[in-house]
Amino acid sequence: MENNFVIILKNDKVSKRLSTSQFIIKENGSLWVENSGTIYPMLSLPEGADKKKYLKMLEKKEFDKVASCTMKVGEIINGGEIVMGDDWANHPVNKKIQAEEDRRREQEKKMVKIFLSTRGWGDYSNVEWRGDITRPNEEILEECKTALENGYDVDFPDQSDEELLKKIVEAREKWEGKEAAKKEAETAEQADIQHKIETGFCFNCESWCHGDCGNYSNDPVIKYKRELESARKEQSYGIHD
Ligand SMILES: [Zn+2]
Question: What is the domain partition of the chain in residue ranges?
């Protein structure tokens, strides 16, 4: 499917991602790439190698001379493992990266800012607490007090525990309200899709066409695929960049 990139892993981290329209794997596992009609080997040069020398060899197509440092799929060269794009989705390192990213995103959802105090003259930012609002009050309270005590030129450094706890509780309630609203919206969307499936809605033309559009589909997956596709296109056109 996506044979158009390779990943070079070093110490279980993505060290490089190489893209091209076409990678070719020869019988011995070496990786080649087509460029203007010529097929060149991908090189992994030894530490301290003279790059210009190797480039000249490539230009002259003296491929036998560079054979010792061609990249081989799945092989470790200079400490890097080469993974083809096709195998990347299910590669354990990629799965680990994805899991970490999911965890980070979940954690980010819990991050909340609490305004604590303004500061004196000048261009100072407010004193704020920022962190995981689902943590216990006492912990957050301690951190708020520390921020007020250690902050520079704080206008209201002496706030009682009650005052601060009130701010913490209010911030949490506000956050919980938003989370509940999000969940409700998701549930409503699911119910809407379910209703459409049951009443024979066509997800291809997005109406109750009863087959008139010629591509009748009662499968909502089609809608998600289309949305994903257009998001991808926007991305590759750099619209979201
Ligand atoms: Zn239709």
Answer: 5-88, 110-191, 200-241
